[in-house]
Amino acid sequence: GDARVRGQTGVVSERRGSYPFIDFRLLNNTTLSGEIGTKKKVKRLLSFQRYFHASRLLRGIVPQASLYLLDEDYLGQARHMLSKVGMWDFDIFLFDRLTNGNSLVTLLCHLFNVHGLIHHFQLDMVTLHRFFVMVQEDYHSQNPYHNAVHAADVTQAMHCYLREPKLASFLTPSDIMLGLLAAAAHDVDHPGVNQPFLIKTKHHLASLYQNVSVLENHHWRSTIGMLRESRLLAHLPKEVTQDIEQQLGSLILATDINRQNEFLIRLKSHLDNQDLRLEDAQDRHFMLQIALKCADICNPCRVWDLSKQWSERVCEEFYRQGDLEQKFELEISPLCNQQKDTVPSIQIGFMTYIVEPLFERWAQFTGNTPLSENMLNHLRRNKAKWRSLLHKQHSSSRSNDHSGEVTSSQEQTLNEEETP
């Protein structure tokens, strides 16, 4: 069917679920059947029941008859974790288990309440929850990395950044809602393969967006489609919803790693000239873009146990793409060859050329707050651990000296131009 639907503002957006995102001839791991719609409805209903049960407990209301959908002990632990949602060592993997795979929905409902967004925007709680469930379900759970848990992790990080004093004192409710929504939906319907893969397989989305920020454009348009379908903001004036849609797009498109230097150069200029005026909506929006970029790639700045899990997950997703490319006799993309690209080498390159330059500037912006210093300390320690693991790999496989090195081609892939 047609993959696009024209909304009232004239923006072309993808109709959620109207087509398989990736060519099934290639992935060959999904079959379409009439049962999908029914299963989704049942899953959505159960998700709502789980949330309703949990939300009553979070407010201290113990139901007379339990729904027996989640163990009471688990709900108690999840509630306790939410009381510490602003802590940087928040374990999103544990939280996802405690919420029975509903970490994104549960986290968003809590944060929208904590930040007073439900009251401020007069949002209907059932409609809001329905929208969050739509977003969560449009992530692909089979992706090792780009799934709803990653979205929840980025959202939790964004919450931490929104509380940084340098930023928090200037933020409006609109800024906070946009930041949280963009974080939650920034990778929605991600297929588990990258843009070059979509381009070389001539995927229709690559043609639709003319090979420019293909995935990010799709994430944004999908989010708009879900917002309109849910009618979450239907009670707001048309010009307000149009502005929200456009700003969501600007935030999500900022996560395109190919635009890394564009944002770093601009941030460096602002910091060197000391001309950021956060009273100005345009400057606040730019810093929200930077905050989202930081949240999106903050894994190397987490505690080692969490950081290592994310590193292994993202590399597994790379390797799956490489296996797919090999299977169909396509050129294997950089970082996707499991025989040559090891997890330590990929992570060291990523930290060096992408993460460190961005987070050093973020720390400069925040004024080296405890959170910024904590993140940089984790980043340095984690990088040292990966270097140690890389050294052990070299020691144990002298016959394959180049397997674990950070090659120039990898550096180019991680950062096509020299990072300032």
UniProtKB/TrEMBL annotation:
Catalytic activity: 3',5'-cyclic AMP + H2O = AMP + H(+)
EC number, as in UniProt: 3.1.4.-
Residue span of region Disordered: 391-420
Residue sites binding Zn(2+) 1 per the record: 150, 186-187, 296
Domain PDEase: 70-393
Binding site residues for Zn(2+) 2: 187
Claim: Hydrolase is one of the keywords in the record: yes
CDD domains: HDc
Any single biological process term in GO: signal transduction
Needed cofactors: a divalent metal cation
Gene3D superfamilies in the record: 3'5'-cyclic nucleotide phosphodiesterase, catalytic domain (1.10.1300.10)
Keywords (A to Z) from UniProt: cAMP, Hydrolase, Metal-binding
Entry superkingdom: Eukaryota
Pathway(s) annotated for this protein in UniProt: Purine metabolism; 3',5'-cyclic AMP degradation; AMP from 3',5'-cyclic AMP: step 1/1
Catalytic-site annotation from UniProt: 146 (proton donor)
Entry's Gene Ontology molecular function annotations: 3',5'-cyclic-AMP phosphodiesterase activity; metal ion binding
Binding-site residues, AMP: 146-150, 187, 296, 347
Cofactor annotation remark: Binds 2 divalent metal cations per subunit. Site 1 may preferentially bind zinc ions, while site 2 has a preference for magnesium and/or manganese ions.
InterPro entries documented for this protein: HD/PDEase_dom, PDEase, PDEase_catalytic_dom, PDEase_catalytic_dom_sf, PDEase_CS
Recorded family membership: Belongs to the cyclic nucleotide phosphodiesterase family. PDE7 subfamily.
UniProt name for this protein: Phosphodiesterase
The organism of origin for this protein: Cisticola juncidis
